[in-house]
Write a structure and sequence with these properties.
Belongs to the ABC transporter superfamily. Keywords: ATP-binding, Nucleotide-binding, Transport. There is one protein chain. The protein has helices at 55-63, 102-112, 117-130, 146-159, 176-193, 204-210, 244-269; strands spanning 10-23, 26-40, 44-48, 70-75, 78-79, 87-90, 164-168, 196-200, 213-217, 224-229. By secondary structure, it is of the alpha/beta class. It has a domain at 95-161. α4 runs parallel beside α5 (176-193).
């Protein structure tokens, strides 16, 4: 069975979201069309789709960094109009402050919110330990591997106690082996924190391995093509990727987007 998810409480509600980018002297670009999606408290949901299908655009709308053209995003029933402490974003490239050690990077969001330094560091230490970084508190970002820097990023995001953690291709810059290790680390952190997670990824096997559900987007304008439940038992180890049921789920999702992915690759080559 999957981890206990509150089947009633909605952490995130996306209702009729549309996004059109207006361009001076050029045709407008419709990025998203009628996105409707609900994510429950404690759930881990991933979105996959061809490049340019609006996945990252939707994440930025949810975070309040970008306005929707129409529709509404609600977090715990409250409409999103701007960035807020109830959401935290982790991007593909780490955004650590190079002049601060790990402990101060993780505590940064708390300190700028006015939390006393001692309390901020105590909270940061808890998430540093959770992320497997104990002993690296006084290391600077340049002294860490790419995978460790992303763990610091995740710890910093969780330290502010968001209702929803938004992940935009957080492991894309890592090599294949480190990426797989980071997937298991992320699952461990998620299991311990209980935070709701919405992940954008181009890696179908990553989405299947991590998620309770995978949302498949159509090509631009992005819309929800299908929702795929992932009934694989938890906790999950990397060995599950060798199971027949795992491969069948990956194949099912790939067949939904294969034509659009190949078209996107061809367009980029043209």
């Amino acid at each position: 069975m999957n981890r206990g998810v509150n089947q009633m409480a909605e952490a995130l509600s996306i209702e009729g979201i549309n996004k059109v980018f207006e361009r001076a002297g050029k045709p407008s670009v419709e990025a998203l069309r009628d996105i409707n999606l609900t994510v429950r408290e404690g759930e881990f949901v991933s979105i996959v789709g061809a490049s340019g299908s609006g996945k990252s655009t939707l994440l930025r709308i949810i975070d309040g960094l970008l306005p929707a053209s129409s529709g509404v995003v609600k977090v715990s029933g409250h409409a999103v109009t701007r960035p807020g402490a109830d959401r935290a974003m982790v991007f593909q490239q780490d955004a650590l402050l190079p002049w601060k050690p790990v402990i101060e990077n993780v505590a940064y969001g708390l300190t700028i919110a006015g939390t006393p330094k001692r309390d901020a560091h105590a909270t940061a230490q808890r998430f540093i330990d959770m992320a497997g970084l104990k002993g690296f508190e006084q290391h600077y970002p340049h002294q860490l591997s790419g995978g460790m820097r992303q763990r610091v990023n995740v710890a910093r995001a969780l330290a502010v106690n968001p209702k929803i953690l938004l992940l935009d291709e957080p492991f894309a810059a890592l090599d294949a082996q480190t990426r797989e290790i980071m997937q298991t680390e992320l699952l461990n952190i998620w299991q311990k924190s209980g935070t709701t997670v919405l992940l954008i990824t181009h890696q179908i096997d990553e989405a299947v391995f991590l998620s309770d559900r995978v949302i498949v987007f159509s090509a631009r304008p992005g819309s929800v093509r299908e929702e795929i439940p992932i009934p694989l038992p938890r906790p999950r180890a990397l060995e599950v990727k060798r199971h027949e049921a795992f491969g069948a789920l990956v194949d099912r999702i790939w067949h939904l987007i294969e034509h659009e992915v190949r078209s996107a690759v061809a367009d980029n080559r043209a």
